[in-house]
């Protein structure tokens, strides 16, 4: 169902009037984790100013260590919703528990399935059973075929509003957190009609190469870019080393717009 052979035209996902997959790239930005109302509102204000409509923020955090901050849960989703309603934004947030899908639909506009859960088949089935659009991230060592089959799990349950997200894969290279597989973009665009995002923050884990990686992703045909923005990255409760602050985000947006890759 997700194959180009089944459907030649691009799937265009309509997020309250913002179209994803129609040729004009979109940006999704926001903190790694929702930490407080103040933090989310500060980011939301900047997104609004920049004309960026999609806001991310994790309320359920799949952390590598069980001792790390696990997220605010439903309270975090409520904070995202309040900020989004205030600034007319779209909420993108990760859900990790199949039983939370219906609860999440009250607050989020896009359900994110994280890399670590790409092959959590019960979660994929649950995401396929609701009608909220889904952003599915590529697993840490998933092949293209595994990635597309994961999307197929969701679409085959009836939720056709699926967006794919390349977020870097595990390799031996240590100078980046993961290896951004830029070739995934044209391959996914050729093989599937679903929109394709590139998460430049988790793939690189470095603030200094976000702009060239975003340009590469857009030049390769990506429909959207994801990045992490935090009002004070140094004190962030997760991914403190890779998030950018609000002035850097504003510079990033200005430079990306100047590249003429934003349509
Ligand atoms: C995230 O986007 O918040 C995240 C945890 O990313 P990933 O699932 O790609 O590691
Ligand atoms: Mn993160």
UniProtKB/TrEMBL annotation:
<dbReference type="GO" id="GO:0016740">
    <property type="term" value="F:transferase activity"/>
</dbReference>
<protein>
    <submittedName>
        <fullName>3-deoxy-D-arabinoheptulosonate-7-phosphate synthase /chorismate mutase</fullName>
    </submittedName>
</protein>
<dbReference type="GO" id="GO:0004106">
    <property type="term" value="F:chorismate mutase activity"/>
</dbReference>
<dbReference type="GO" id="GO:0009073">
    <property type="term" value="P:aromatic amino acid family biosynthetic process"/>
</dbReference>
<keyword id="KW-0175">Coiled coil</keyword>
<dbReference type="GO" id="GO:0016832">
    <property type="term" value="F:aldehyde-lyase activity"/>
</dbReference>
<dbReference type="GO" id="GO:0046417">
    <property type="term" value="P:chorismate metabolic process"/>
</dbReference>
<keyword id="KW-0808">Transferase</keyword>
């Amino acid at each position: 169902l997700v194959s180009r052979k089944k459907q030649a035209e691009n799937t265009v996902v309509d997020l309250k009037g913002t179209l994803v997959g129609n040729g004009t790239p979109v940006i999704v930005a926001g903190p790694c984790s929702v930490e407080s109302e103040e933090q989310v509102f500060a980011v939301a204000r900047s997104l609004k100013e920049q004309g960026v409509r999609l806001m991310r923020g994790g309320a359920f955090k799949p952390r590598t260590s069980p001792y790390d901050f696990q997220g605010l849960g439903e309270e975090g989703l409520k904070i995202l919703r309040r900020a989004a309603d205030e600034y007319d934004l779209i909420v993108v947030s990760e859900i990790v528990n199949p039983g939370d899908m219906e609860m999440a639909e009250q607050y989020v506009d896009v359900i994110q399935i994280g890399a670590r859960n790409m092959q959590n088949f019960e979660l994929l089935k649950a995401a396929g059973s609701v009608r909220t659009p889904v952003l599915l991230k590529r697993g840490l060592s998933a092949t293209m075929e595994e990635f597309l089959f994961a999307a197929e799990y969701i679409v085959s349950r009836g939720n056709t509003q699926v967006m794919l997200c390349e977020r870097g894969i595990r390799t031996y290279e240590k100078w980046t957190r993961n290896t951004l597989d830029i070739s995934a973009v044209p391959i996914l665009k050729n093989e599937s009609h679903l929109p394709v995002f590139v998460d430049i923050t988790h793939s690189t884990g470095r603030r200094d190469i976000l702009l060239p990686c975003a340009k590469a992703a857009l030049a390769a045909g990506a429909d959207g870019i994801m990045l992490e923005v935090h009002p004070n990255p140094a004190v962030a409760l997760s991914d403190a080393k890779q998030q950018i602050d609000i002035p850097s985000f504003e510079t990033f947006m200005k430079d990306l717009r100047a590249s003429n890759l934003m349509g």
